[in-house]
Amino acid sequence: MDLKNITALKILGIDAINKANSGHPGIVLGAAPIIYALLKDHLNITPKNSKWINRDRFVLSAGHGSALLYSTLHLSGFNISIEDLKNFRQLNSKTPGHPEYKHTDGVECTTGPLGQGIGMGVGMAVAEAHLSSKYNKIIDHYTYVLCGDGDLQEGLSYEAISFAGRQKLNKLILLHDSNNIQLDSPVKDVQTEDLHKRFEASNWNTILVKNGDDWKAISKAIGEAKLANKPTYIEVKTVIGAGATNEGTTKVHGAPLGKDIETVKKNLNWTNAEFEIEKDVYNSYSQIMNEKEVKYLEWHKQFNSLDEKIKNEITNNFNQKWDVDKKDIMKLIKGETQATRVSSGNVMNYLTAKLPMIGGSADLCESTKIKGPDGNFDIDNRSGRNIMYGVREFAMASINNGVALHGGLLPFAAGFFVFSDYMKPAIRLSALQQIQTLYVFTHDSIGVGEDGPTHQPIEQLAMLRAIPNLKVFRPADMHETIAAYIAALEYKNGPSVIVCTRQNLEELNHGKDFIKDVKKGAYIISEDKNSNVTIIATGSEVKLALDVKNKLNNENINAKVVSMPCVENYEEQSLGYKDAIIDKNSNIFTIELGTTFGWEKYSFRNGKSFGWNKFGFSAPFGDILKHIGFNAETISKEIIEKLRGNK
Predict the structure, then answer these.
(1) Which helix (H) or strand (E) holds 34?
(2) With the C-alpha atoms ordered 139, 141, 146, 150, is the resulting torsion angle positive or negative?
(3) CATH 3.40.50.920 region(s) of the chain?
(4) Which residue, among 85, 98, 80, has the nearest Cα to 17 in the 3D structure?
(5) What is the three-class DSSP state of 81?
């Protein structure tokens, strides 16, 4: 029956691909025994309770093998029907081209960009290790990742594997569908290192399964891996497109089989019609899943025996029910002149003491002022909440995605803003999956000064603002920093970025409703009667905008200053609110010490955008501003000239 079950996985996958005339049959035919061995003997999941917090996590890092995953979920009783398989890769179907989190029942994360599934799997293992130290037996499960050859060529995989080995994440098991073929060529044309030695050097346990059709040998290897005291890499030698005319070649990687599907079915002794699965197969899978449901019920009984306070704590954390006492956090405001990175660090210290947050910086805690509490998360201190990521920005962001996907924790990651370039693919995946992660970036402009153009962000704000579902906050002082963090906590369906300065900023005057103002994305911080000039500024340039306004007032020009800490939130407000904040008929000017790209949306009519569209300089910050003329006197003069020209 086991062979028939495996064949059913293969047939459903290639039927779906052929009907769609799009997809990757090679991995379906080659890796089905791996998936079956894992599901039958090891993977503790249950379709009746697919969000069970102590389920094993399975990540298909090789996301192009989605047809195999959907076939497995269908046969296992998850909410994927035969009709859904027939609509593979079609508009609005439950079975998109690559697995999508929150879209398809049983899918743990969005994968497809190779390597990121490995990073997210590491993050899930981190979350399990930390929560297991706090809730023994209630959180106690494994994370399994299935990857292909291409995953292991991505730089991210090196970063994540190194981190996992250093942390001895023994409940992480990486299964490698090792078929020696990729899209353009055999693997030997692009990669020659001994992967087992690479993993051993990274402090992993390694196992080789020579015959990828032997599901029992694969199951035995997984069983051995579960006994290891460090993460395990299992290489399973498979044949891509096994059973097809062009098996073992690049031709079966990413193209439908077409008429050759009949050859495959003949070789597999499969005579049923398209998408037809016999009842004994469904019954067999049902029996497998019923045994897993028993394990869930045993766990649920144990969970119900917990103290009510602990049960509520676990439930609330997995439901993202975390909030902050707004009156109490206001005590952090001292009216001091300080860099917003310092303000941010103080707010973060306050929040991590009260909320289930975990994270850290990419070897930059001293500079970003962001550090988790309770010591470093480590082999001997799984309860620590400061993660030492090392200089691994991409892995840091990907690992945090995995922590968020696991649930029960709010992850945060910090670094220099210019290095968000290294993290952008993972930030994009945070946004695509609509998961709550927090990114804190410091050294947000050429205000970095002496470190020069390599460390001075110019285009990064525009880059991040272009990502859907992402909220980017650039606070002007401690008031706005507190409000930004509160808004980020309240935004459950996507990631938030808080961008902070290295240089000191003055504390500004705010109304009593400044938290609501910041949450709306933009608000009037200073206004003259009958103003015909609107100055929009963010972050460190809000004080500069106020200074510009004062100089305009000296010339009998009335103006208002709008602080816009979050462009995305402002754009979500009602038209009435937006028009009240920014008068479209006034002369609109924007000030931000970065690229002006995007600001023309506001200033195009009668104004101008002030910024910097070149790379920076290595010099003290004050000297740089003087050199480029980025000061109140120069900007106010240009505004006056512009106004005269508009008359």
Answers:
(1) helix 25-41
(2) positive
(3) 521-646
(4) 85
(5) coil
Q: Which residues of the chain have pLDDT under 50?
A: none
So what CATH class is 334-505? alpha beta
What residues contact residue 360 under an 8 Å CB cut-off, 6+ apart? Answer: 370, 371, 372, 386, 387, 388, 389, 396, 412, 413, 414
Strands 338-339 and 504-505, bridge-based pairing:
antiparallel
Among the listed residues 202, 136, 632, the one whose alpha carbon sits nearest the alpha carbon of residue 382? 136
Contact assessment for residue 156 and residue 116, using Cβ atoms and an 8 Å cutoff: yes
The answer to whether the pTM exceeds 0.85 is: yes
pLDDT value of residue 84: 98
| 477: Cα within 13 Å, side-chain hemisphere | 20
- CA dist 475 and 566 (Å) reads 8
**Alpha helices, DSSP H only, in 532-593?**
541-554, 567-571, 575-581
Q: What is the pLDDT of residue 604?
A: 77
Range list for CATH 3.40.50.970 in the chain: 2-297, 334-505
For the 2-297 domain, the top CATH level (class) is: alpha beta
Query: SS3 string of 572-586?
Result: CCCHHHHHHHCCCCC
- Tokens found for residue 98: 């690559």
Tokens representing 197?
């030695």
CATH of 521-646, one of 3.40.50.920, 3.40.30.10, 3.30.450.80, 3.30.70.260: 3.40.50.920
For residue 393, indicate whether it is catalytic: yes
Choice among 393, 480, 541, 592 that is catalytic = 393
Element (H, E) at 113: none
pLDDT tens profile 372-389: 999 999 999 999 999 999
Q: How far apart are CA 188 and CA 177, in angstroms?
A: 15
25: left (phi over 0), alpha (psi -120 to 50) or beta: alpha
Taking the chain, what is the end-to-end CA distance rounded to the nearest angstrom?
A: 85
Strands 471-473 and 504-505: unpaired
Give the tokens for residue 252: 């079966």
